[in-house]
Write a structure and sequence with these properties.
Layout: H1 11-26, H2 30-34, H3 42-50, H4 58-67, H5 76-84
Amino acid sequence: MPLLILPRSIAIGDLIAYANENTNEKATTREGRMDRYTFAGAEYFKRMKEVGLYTTNINEVEIRIKKLNLDGAFNKDTQLQSLNN
């Protein structure tokens, strides 16, 4: 199965990259290792709004995903087809 690249131009890709960057910087302290990043969390939610990733418009999200050819990437059927090929 090929690797799935989730770019920073969508929220899930940005969240993963952001958490990795901040974890590396904060990993030297106990408090830093306790940080959690979620879409609902104050720190990342603020970032999503700042970089223009936050929207409640489903059509806008669909357009972003389709532009990256990621539509269906998380569908169970799509994953099973990839495994069988």
